[in-house]
Amino acid sequence: MEQTAVRDSIRESWAASVLPSLSELVEIPAVSQNFEPGWAERGQLHAAVHHVRRWLETRAISGARVDVVELDGRSPLLLLDVPGDADAGTALLYGHLDKQPPVGGWSEGLGPWTPVVRDGRLYGRGAADDGYSGYAATTAIEAVRAAGGSHSRCVVMLETGEESGSPDLPAYLEHLRPTLGEVSLVVCLDSGGNDYQRLWLTTSLRGLVSVDLTVRVLESGQHSGLASGVVPSSFRVIRQLLDRVEDSRTGEILLPEMTVRVPEDRLAEVRASVAAAPGAVRSAFPMVRGARPVSDDEVELALNNSWRPTLSVIGASGFPEPLDAGNVLRPFSTLTLSFRVPPTADSAAALAAVEKALTVDVPYDARVSLSRTESADGWNAPTMAPWLSSALDTVSESVFGASWRTVGLGGSIPFMGLLARQYPEAQFVITGALGPDSNAHVPDEWLHLEHAQRVTEAVAHVLHAHASSG
Ligand SMILES: [Zn+2]
After folding, report:
1. I need a surface site. Which of 56, 210, 374, 412 has the fewest CB within 10 A?
2. What spacing in Å lies between the alpha carbon of 129 and ligand 1's midpoint?
3. What's the CA-to-centroid distance between 95 and ligand 1, angstroms?
4. Ligand 1 (ion): which residues have CB within 5 A?
5. 390 and 426 inside one domain
6. Residues 174 and 314 in one domain
7. How far is the CA of 209 from the centre of ligand 1 (A)?
8. Contact present, 336 and 312 (Cβ < 8 Å)
9. What pLDDT, in 10s, does the model give residues 225-248?
10. Which of 79, 58, 62 minimizes the C-alpha distance to 145?
């Protein structure tokens, strides 16, 4: 397949058609269902789906079908089904059209629903996360055809619930299972990497365990001068319980059920990725001046973030605001504990271990209760097939001029585990246009237009290589 033809096809489409349509998509406030309980009546998720659907219908890809699937009470799903000229199984290309909420604090001249192109960037909510994905997937397929390449059947699937944890996707995957056929390649365009110089592949995702922990010591709040020293503080009890699961000096999680041995190949990848983009891990977050990360060693930081368990206390109740705080020994303390667990940990076993550690032999026999428990497994990519790694090498050389690298994502994409279980033979390319400072989920979100087009070229090459992998 001729690289120049791939590139020209994508450049032309993006300039003439993708950028205008994607800009209009930015204007649609398609906020995800968790943040917009009235989403069905407001119709913005539907508006986003119909906007992209209309664009797909102008593309005239021969043999292609465009469908909107809508199961009862669930957010809509947009599908583009493109027959292939090769038979290597179905390539499933995933993205999402729902968005994070707008949030305040956008810079002068920018706004969540105002598309602005400036310095090679498209600003606006949902441009990079993840509005561009359907355009990238579609123009990649077109480029394969324009350049005389081959592709197997491709199904572009754009859901509208990702920012709410994809609650509807399992039902859609089940519903579509007979029509999808044997999925042998999953391309997920909802991720990114540590720089804009190369293609980044996400090779693992952490899982999640969460629980609300309540420690109750009193039937009602009491004068703290009179009760303290007699009645134990619920906060002190909770501190002792937390010490059972986390070393408060280092942040190390103490439960064996939450730790795994880092596979050798992943360890080597982490080292290579840190070497490729030195400083990227350390400086990824806006720490206050003078504060230091957990370690000086970036490899350790990357491993902490991708292959080790961590605890974040993400919510609390039973505490008044400081201005309302009287001298009261509070009757209870509740903390919401959010653990990230390694990609290959058994999250159900990890949750059971947390439950046991927090409820057995409680100091002062205080009353402990756990509620809203949740667990979800992470994901570790299967061993990469030779056809895929050689395609990625080609992409590195001809598209980026820099070697592809991998990242283990600290967060979760819950349905990846689901897809991996449903299609155990499939290869996974989890990538995307997000990079340092692209501001997904915060003000001033922007899409790196050049990088997004290179990622699109990469997808074209992967599809072409996939066609002859069967
Ligand atoms: Zn996303």
Report:
1. 374
2. 4
3. 7
4. 129-130, 190
5. yes
6. no
7. 21
8. no
9. 999 999 999 999 999 999 999 999
10. 62
